[in-house]
Amino acid sequence: MEYPITLHYRPGEGPQEGTPEFDAEMERWRELNEEMRRAGVLVALSGLRPEAVTTVRERDGHVSITDGPYAETKEILFSFYILDVADLDAATAWAAKMPSAAYGSNEIRPTMGFEVA
Question: Would you say the pTM of this structure is higher than 0.85?
Answer without folding.
Answer: no
